[in-house]
Amino acid sequence: MNFKEEEKITRFFVFAALGWAIIGMLVGLVAAAQLYAPELNFANEYLNFGKIRPIHTNVVIFGMVCNFLMGLSLYILCKSSSANLAYKGLTWVLFWGWQLVLLIGVVTLSMGYTSTKEYAEMEWPLDIAIVILWLIFALVFFTTLGQRKSKHIFVSNWFSGAVIIVIALIFVMNNLAMPLYAFKSYSIFSGVSDSLVQWWWGHNAVGFLLTAVFVGTNYYFIPKVVDRPIYSYRLSLITFWGLIGFYTWAGTHHLVYTSVPSWIQNVGVVMSLLLWLPSWAGAFNAWMTATSNKEAWKTNPIVWFFMSSIIYYALATFEGPLMAIRWFNQIAHSTSWVIGHVHSGALGWVGMTVIATLYYMIPKLLNKQLFSYRLVKVHFVLAHLGVLFYIVSLWIGGIGQGSMWLALTDYGSLAYTFSQVLDFIKPYMLGRTIGGGLYVLGMLVMVYNLYMTSRPQIELTEQKA
């Protein structure tokens, strides 16, 4: 079949994901630097941490991840189903509309227009636009799925379909609001109810946009890169149904020790612990697939990135349930340890998967060979040094921070002042900034490598790793 138009659409989504990734990570690096040296905001209202932090998270989630999801889920669907894309014109509307919404979102967030909800800061006109575009995405995806030539639905398409349905449901519910005027509204929920709905969305945005998307794409791309089948198709379905069954209930582990009813907190704790099973089943399955071709994993640095992403996925899905346990939650929650946990998943799991996929897909979409595998190895080193500096600094600093906040004198008063805790974590904020800088430097190496790959009539002297 001819997939020329599908590959063109995918190419636009993939390059958009790369562009937003660089922007989001650079903004995140500025935010990290300000936590070490607050004066780096230069007393400029547009560089204020309170504004650039939501820009960082929204650009990474809605810019990098959603473009990655849309482009590659449609590509995988067409290739695995032997079907051309339905409504190609609407797909272009989806692409350009999504980029426009993101651009307006960045501008309005920098101007201070925010709903103040985690991972959902964009105001109501943009929420409505996102929902309309998401429905277009759903229409294109499920119509194409219905036109498939193969009787079997490949497992990656199960994950993509689930992401579309779940994200639509929880995004709409969390963003129900009463508009006051343009770019200002108030949630229809309040108090504890608002917290419950927010973390139903917030944690499942992580669970589906930052987890299920990449589990699904890995089941397609890792076998392609190593030229071997999925180790166990049955394990992939266990992972799918486990994530669907457990993840949607786990968000209330963010609300342990709050006024939320204890039984709801306990549901979140139990479901978080149960998530170890499908998460590690998926990690084991992907690892066995990636290592099934010894020649590939020994010599191909793209496979190394996939293998690293699997390790960080296993690590992040160990840390999450650990934080749900009450005794550990008491120490770690609301500390830098949580940020370390988030970024072991975001930089380690999501980032490494995106990097590996881009190195594989962009040369393929351009019908060229990768410019330099040596630069991929340089990127590999920079990325891993960056992640380790980042998360180890925040693990150590976070546990120390939590312990100091809990410490009491013999008279029952707090042993440390707030400023003393800030002094303690300052060197760890520097470690975080260094780690972020190394990671961003690696991304810039990748941009150069892919740019050189895209150039016409270049000398390709390093085609083998």
From TrEMBL:
Instruction: Enumerate the InterPro entries for this protein.
Output: Cyt_c_oxase-like_su1_dom, Cyt_c_oxase-like_su1_sf, Cyt_C_Oxase_1, Cyt_c_Oxase_su1_BS
Any keyword Transport? yes
Q: Does the keyword Transmembrane helix apply?
A: yes
Q: Which GO terms describe its molecular function?
A: cytochrome-c oxidase activity; heme binding
Family according to the record: Belongs to the heme-copper respiratory oxidase family.
Q: Which PROSITE patterns match?
A: COX1, COX1_CUB
Instruction: Name it.
Output: Cytochrome oxidase subunit I profile domain-containing protein
Domain of life of the source: Bacteria
| Domain called Cytochrome oxidase subunit I profile: residue spans | 1-465
Kindly state a single biological-process term from the GO annotations of this entry: oxidative phosphorylation
**Primary subcellular site in the record, as a coarse category:** membrane
Q: Which residues form a coiled coil?
A: none
